[in-house]
Amino acid sequence: MKKTTSNSIKRNLTMTLSLMMTATMLASCGSGYDGSESRKSSIYNNTATDNYRYNNDATAETANGSTNIAGDYNTEEYNHLTENGYKLVSDEPLSTFSTDVDTASYTNVRRMINDGWEVDPDAVRTEEFINYFKYDYEKPTEGAVSINTELSDCPWNSEAKLMLVGLQAREAKVKDVPTNLVFLIDVSGSMEDEDKLPLVQQAFSMLAENLGADDRVSIVTYAGSDSVVLEGESGDNSEEIVSALNSLSAGGSTAGAAGITTAYKLAEEYFIEGGNNRVILATDGDLNVGLSSEEELTDLISQKRDSGVYLSVLGFGSGNYKDNRLEALADNGNGNYAYIDSVDEAKRVLVTEMSGTLFTVAKDAKVQIEFNPENVSAYRLVGYENRLLNDEDFEDDTKDAGDIGSGQQVTVLYEIVPNNGNEKSLKYQDNESKAETNELSGEMLTVSVRYKDPEASESKLIDKSVMCSDYTEAVSQNFAKACSAAEFAMVLRNSDYASGLTAQGVVDYMEQNNVDNSELFELIYKYMQNGTGSEASYW
After folding, report:
1. What does the buried/exposed string (b/e) look like for 493-509 if buried means 16 or more CB atoms within 10 Å of the residue's CB?
2. SS3 label, residue 150
3. For residues 312 and 358, is the Cβ–Cβ distance under 8 A?
4. CA–CA separation, 124 vs 498, rounded Å?
5. Among 62, 54, 58, which residue's Cα sits nearest to residue 71?
6. For residue 65, what are the CA distances in angstroms to 68, 78, 238, 295?
7. pLDDT for 230-284, tens place per residue?
C-alpha cells in the first residue's frame, strides 16, 4: 500500500471515529508489568481471567471444553484458549513450541467482522493474526530456514521489551515437482450455502487450472457416505476436473471419517516418489455420522501422517462452523489450516501462495528459546498457546511438530522483562569461564530451531544468539506490522496482558509507525464501525 493511500484511510478512520466512539475508546495503552508484588502474582502464575461474556446469552461450553455460541442459528465451536502467562527465567529458562503457519483464525474473524457479528474471543489465535501478513526477512543462504530477530520496546507494556523472531523458509523450485492431490469435499446438507460448496467449487477450479501434465487429481466426496468422483486424472485435463467439481451438489448427513480414509487410500495408490502428495479437505467441520468428535478425528488422522501424505484443511461457511475439529485435523496431520471467506482468499491460498500451501520444505519444525537469567528475569510468549511443547521434545525427532512450506514465514513475539541480577543456568551456567571473560554475559537469549528435510527422519539444528546490545528504539516495518496484528488480536481477545489497549490505540500505533497495511486498517475500521470496538459493547 502506498503511503498516500494509508494516510487517506487513517484520515477517514479518525474522522468517523471522532463522531461515533465514546471517551472509553480513547483510553491509553496498558502498562503491563509494573514491578509490584500483586501484579507479579497475576502474570507469573498465569491467571488470565475467563470472565469474558458475549451479547448472545445462550453461550455455553461443550463437553470437550470448546465454546459453542448456541444462538438460534449459530452453533459454531472453538476451543477455549487461556493466554500464555509470564514465566520466571530462574524457574523455566527454556521456552519450546511447534511452529505454526496457519492463518484460519484471521480470515474467520475477518468474516465475523465483515458480517457484523460479535467476535468470539476463542476464535482469535494471536499467532495466526501475526502470520497472516508478509514480512521482509532475510532468506536462508543455506539450509531450509533462516532466523531473523529484532529487539525493541513493547508497545503495550512499558515495563517490558519485545523480541521478534522471524523464520524465513527457502523458496523451492516447485515447477518441476509433480503433485498428487486428492480433493476431499464435504457435500453434506450443511454445505449448500453460497459461502460453502459453491465457494469450494470455485476454489478448487482455480487450483486445477494451474496444474500440469505430470500432476494427478482425485476427487472424493462425503455426506452420508463417501464417493470417488474422479480418480488419478491428469492435471492438464483441467476441463474434466472442473466439470467434475461443478457436478457436485449438497445434501444428506456428514460422515467425514469415511471420506478421510478413502482420500488417503487414493493418495497412497497414486503416490509419487519425490513428489508432493497431499489431501486437501474442504468442509465446515460439522461432522455428525461415525467418528465425529475432536478426539476421534485426531486419533484417525494421527495414524495417517506417517504415510508421506500431507494434509491441508480449508474451512468454509458460518453458523455451524467447527473450528476446533478442523484445527485438530490440520495440527495432527502434518498439514496447514486456512479459512476461505471469499474468492479472493481462495486465490491467495491456492494460486498466489500455492507453493507455500502445497510444498513442504521443513517438516517437524520446532523452536526453543533459552533465556539468560543474568539479563532476563521473565518472559511471555505471545500466542502459540496450543503449540507448546515440553522442553525435552525439542531434541526428540519422533515428536511431531509443524511444517513450513516453500517461501513461508513464521513470526513470533516475546515480551521480555529485563534483569540486572547475576544468575546463570544451562548454556550460561555451563560456561563459567566464558562468562568471567564477558563472552556470554552480554547475551540476552539464544534462538534454536530444529527441522527435518521433507524426506529425512533426523533433524537439523540452527541457532542464533541475541545480544543486549541488539536493542534498538527505532523499529522496522516488520516489527511494527507484527505488533499491530498482535495488538488487534489482543483487543479482540480482551487480553489481560494489554488490558488498556483499544482498537483506537492500535490505529494510533500504526499511524505513529507508518505501518503499511491497508488490509488491517480497513478491518479495524470495520470493527469499530460495527460498534464492537467499544468496551461498552462487551461489558
Report:
1. bbbbbbeebbbbbbbbb
2. strand
3. yes
4. 15
5. 58
6. 9, 9, 43, 12
7. 999 999 999 999 999 999 998 876 665 778 889 999 999 999 998 899 999 999 9
Q: What pTM, to 2 d.p., does this model score?
A: 0.83
- The pLDDT of residue 111 is above 80: yes
The three grid cell numbers given for residue 304, joined into one nine-digit string: 495417517
Rounded CA-CA distance 329/334 in Å is 9
On the CB side of 403, CA atoms within 13 Å amount to 27
Cell of 505: 490505540
Whether 178 contacts 215, CB under 8 Å: yes
SS3 311: strand
Residue pair 186/325 in contact (Cβ under 8 Å)? The answer is: no
Q: How far is CA 110 from the centre of its chain?
A: 14
Rounded mean pLDDT, 68-83 = 75
CB 172 within 8 A of CB 276: no
For 40, the grid coordinates are 507479579
Q: Are 380 and 43 in contact (CB under 8 A)?
A: yes
- Band the pLDDT of 198: cuts 50, 70, 90: very high
List, in sequence order, the alpha helices (H) in 55-103. none
Q: What is the DSSP letter of 375?
A: T
* 3-state DSSP of 165-202: EEEEECCCCCCCCCEEEEEEEECCHHHCCCCCHHHHHH
Q: What is the pLDDT of residue 381?
A: 98
Residue with the three cell numbers 468496551: 535
**Hey, what amino acid is at 231?**
E
Name the pairing type of β-strands 77-79 and 59-61.
Answer: unpaired
Instruction: Dihedral sign for Cα 104, 109, 114, 120, please.
Output: positive
β-bridge mates for residue 106, sequence order: none
Neighbours of 146 (CB within 10 A): 19
Measured distance CA(116)–CA(391) in Å, rounded? 42
Q: Specify whether the CB–CB gap between 449 and 366 falls below 8 A.
A: yes
DSSP conformation letters of 217-280: EEEEEESSSEEEEEEEEETT-HHHHHHHHHT----S---HHHHHHHHHHHHHHT--TTSEEEEE
Give the contacts of 16 (CB within 8 A, at least 6 positions apart). 525, 528, 529
Whole-number average pLDDT of the chain: 82
Using a CB cutoff of 8 Å and minimum separation of 24, what contacts does 50-58 make?
Answer: 50/80, 50/82, 52/121, 52/494, 52/538, 53/538, 53/539, 54/118, 54/120, 55/118, 55/537, 55/538, 56/118
Phi, psi of 304 (to 5 degrees): -95, -15
